[in-house]
Model the fold of this input.
Amino acid sequence: MNERFIFTRHRTNCYYCGEDADQIIKAVSAQAQVICSACGATRIFIPRFENTGAIGVCTPIGCYDVWALETDGLCKNCGVTGPHDLTIGCSHFTTRCRNCGYTHFYRFNLEYIGKCPVGGADEVSAPRAP
Ligand SMILES: [Zn+2]
Ligand SMILES: [Zn+2]
Done:
């Protein structure tokens, strides 16, 4: 899967290790991930549904601050590379194309701590879908 849709980072206090660290944010149509660059805590989100032109925004109810970010991405609906609004909470992840309004909704799926100590095994298997 070489699709490259959203790739950005957001510096904040990690919900897991508490460090002020970059949280790496990646999203493609099939999955979205948020990874702490300090401790490797990873949250995986899977698509819930997609919507074209919806204006409605789900009201985020999260266990910590919701991140409202903006980043460039290639919209698969209108084909334009431009600003996308990202909204990331503890149980949801949405991306919305500013150009056409195309929105991906993801929901929280699983979490794992992926940090490999230096010299440790790097053959950590990818998380399996449930
Ligand atoms: Zn962390
Ligand atoms: Zn678009």
